[in-house]
Amino acid sequence: MEKAVQVCRFNDQRVGVVEENQVIDVTAVTELLPVLRWPVPLGDAFIAGLRSLRPKIEELSKTGERRDLRSVSLLSPIANPSKVIAAPVNYTKHIDESRLDAGINFGTEVSAIDRYALFLKSTSSVVGPSEGIQIHHHDGRRTDHEVELALVIGEKARHVPVEQALKYVAGYFIGLDITIRGTEDRSYRKSLDTFTVLGPWLVTADAVNNPESLDLSISVNGEIRQNANTRDLIWSVAKLVSFASSAYTLYPGDVILTGTPEGVGPIKPGDVLHAAIQGVGAMDVLVR
Ligand code: MN
Hints:
Elements: E1 6-10, E2 14-19, E3 22-25, H1 45-60, E4 66-68, E5 74-75, E6 84-86, H2 92-100, H3 102-105, H4 113-116, E7 119-121, E8 126-127, E9 143-145, E10 147-153, H5 162-165, E11 169-177, E12 179-180, H6 186-189, E13 196-204, E14 215-220, E15 223-229, H7 237-247, E16 255-257, E17 265-266, E18 272-277, E19 281-286
Parallel strand pairs: 6-16, 8-13
Antiparallel strand pairs: 1-2, 1-5, 1-13, 2-3, 3-4, 6-7, 9-12, 9-17, 10-11, 10-16, 11-13, 14-15, 14-18, 18-19
The structure holds manganese (II) ion.
């Protein structure tokens, strides 16, 4: 098996391999992708081909142009998800804080994921860390950060049992599920432009020993707001993939956000978010 790899998208739709503090340009690998004509199949062609592209990526990374990681603009590691699936209230302590804080619950009942199952976010809300988060409501309403472990599906999946579910995951990254608090439907409040920040890059699934036990955190202007571990997920990563595949046909490139732990809070223009997941990476995101 090839060595695990961290794949990013950067600048003007370029593809890179991240090694320590450098990005190696392997954009030439995209020449191996099929030339598609309308109607194109659902899903992301790069992620669909990732397994077969990896030998070429590894070869190109030996000679590709190297740049300082800090000098590039990181885009979403997934270019064309057919859907972004997300888990509501999937950590017990986040349920507790949501019940206690009217600024989060807006007088509505807060229950666990077993009651809500899943929701979808618009694919047009997806950005990478370099694009930042745009605040849309300036009327005093809360726009909150939510840090989550995110994953991308690597092959078409339908009715996958829990025990097999993680085999369908191509890679992991950080997901920020940005949310306006209020009474509207989640699909409105969480789907505005820039409200799904994915990054800093995709870590191939073989590099992540156990996604069910990863530290994740986010700070705002240097102050830690959320700090938890995926072992406290109510529905495990595997269960989320399995359940999602029982509801929807999953296509390569489909993204699943696994839910946020306690500590959600408001963000405002000028804030700098720093999000990190153990074994995955870290990213800074500016609020505009
Ligand atoms: Mn969320």
